[in-house]
């Protein structure tokens, strides 16, 4: 039998997403989902629309949703792009803007999808080191490059880079595309969206998966100069005109209009996060200063890997990254107050033997 076909399958190392366990019900703190349901307006709108329109293809331009996002951020509709989760928006961005010549820069400790896209698309990249306290040294991004991407707040550390420093990076690299992945920006950071009109090279990517509780519907978006958005549209329309389905668009539009619910839930998460961080520090944990809906923690005398396994045995799922520099840390998503009470109690029992 010819093995020719099997040799032609691309040898790529894909991204491994966090577990969605099926064996039992966990207190699930491993993939940074929002512990609260989406806005009641979202559920109502989906119910009202399940019998309508589904026979038809969705609007390929996603105009109504783009309009709602543009109005929320005070932009024009053609400064907004939407996609099937911000993972897709990021993938399209890599395809649209980055090449093989000089390297794309991103931090050593960061969202692990970036090197995956680079390897898939043959994009040259260089990872810039973080400082010992995991903060980002702006000057690392003054090295030769053909583009830059980093999350703000960073993942999985949760550390936020102040807007003035983000602006320095964007301004210094004015002739390159700089992407700020703001998946977690609503949990205490300040978005760089205010800089879009000043810097045509800046692309902001955000998601409805975290602060708007819609991870299951897959909606992400980008905001930037019209030319960048046009570049994204070209890539998208060369791959799939209908990346967002009708119900996802309706849901996202309702979610972004319900500011009251958004504020309530996001502030609740911030409050829980800060309380949990304080309690963990009291019992000997190092907790990085997080502006995201997760915390990054380590314990001097208890290996993170063991802690991960013991928590899992006791029904609590967190995230462990077996990666140089962070292999003694756990990333813990912020759940409800009650879930986090159970988490603190359990982890305290484990470390005190
Ligand atoms: N960027 C970062 C930094 C993330 O952590 C995630 C979530 N894993 C994403 C983007 C993608 O989120 P989504 O595709 O759900 O919008």
From TrEMBL:
Residues bearing the modification N6-(pyridoxal phosphate)lysine: 210
Known pathway: Amino-acid biosynthesis; L-histidine biosynthesis; L-histidine from 5-phospho-alpha-D-ribose 1-diphosphate: step 7/9
Residue ranges crossing the lipid bilayer per the database entry: none
Catalysis performed (reactions): L-histidinol phosphate + 2-oxoglutarate = 3-(imidazol-4-yl)-2-oxopropyl phosphate + L-glutamate
Subunit structure: Homodimer.
Family from the record: Belongs to the class-II pyridoxal-phosphate-dependent aminotransferase family. Histidinol-phosphate aminotransferase subfamily.
Protein name: Histidinol-phosphate aminotransferase
Gene: hisC
């Amino acid at each position: 039998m010819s093995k020719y076909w099997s040799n032609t399958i691309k040898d790529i190392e894909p991204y491994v997403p966090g577990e969605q366990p099926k064996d039992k019900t966990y207190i699930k703190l491993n993939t940074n989902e929002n512990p609260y349901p989406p806005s009641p307006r979202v559920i109502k709108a989906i119910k009202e629309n399940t019998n309508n329109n589904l026979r038809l293809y969705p609007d390929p331009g996603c105009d109504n949703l783009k309009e709602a996002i543009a109005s929320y951020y005070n932009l024009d509709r053609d400064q907004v792009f939407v996609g099937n989760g911000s993972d897709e928006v990021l993938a399209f961005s890599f395809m649209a803007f980055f090449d093989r010549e000089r390297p794309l820069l991103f931090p050593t400790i960061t969202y692990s999808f970036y090197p995956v896209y680079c390897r898939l698309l043959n994009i040259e990249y260089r990872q810039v080191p973080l400082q010992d306290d995991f903060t980002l040294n702006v000057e690392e991004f003054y090295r030769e490059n053909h583009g830059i991407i980093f999350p703000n707040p960073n993942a999985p550390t949760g550390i936020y880079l102040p807007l003035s420093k983000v602006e320095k990076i964007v301004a210094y690299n004015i002739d390159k595309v700089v992407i700020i992945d703001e998946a977690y920006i609503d949990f205490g950071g300040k978005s760089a969206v205010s800089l879009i009109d000043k810097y045509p090279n800046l692309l902001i990517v955000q998601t409805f998966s975290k602060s708007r509780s819609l991870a299951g519907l897959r909606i992400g978006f980008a905001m930037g100069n019209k030319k960048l958005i046009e570049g994204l549209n070209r890539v998208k329309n060369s791959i799939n005109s209908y990346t967002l389905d009708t119900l996802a668009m309706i849901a996202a539009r309702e979610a972004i209009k319900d500011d009251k619910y958004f504020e309530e839930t996001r502030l609740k998460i911030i409050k829980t996060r800060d309380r949990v961080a304080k309690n963990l520090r009291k019992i000997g944990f190092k907790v990085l200063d997080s502006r995201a809906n997760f915390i990054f923690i380590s314990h001097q005398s208890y290996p993170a890997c063991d802690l991960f396994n013991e928590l899992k045995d006791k029904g609590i799922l967190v995230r462990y990254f077996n990666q140089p520099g962070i292999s003694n840390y756990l990333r813990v998503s912020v759940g409800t107050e009650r879930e986090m009470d159970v988490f603190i109690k359990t982890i305290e029992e484990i470390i005190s033997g």
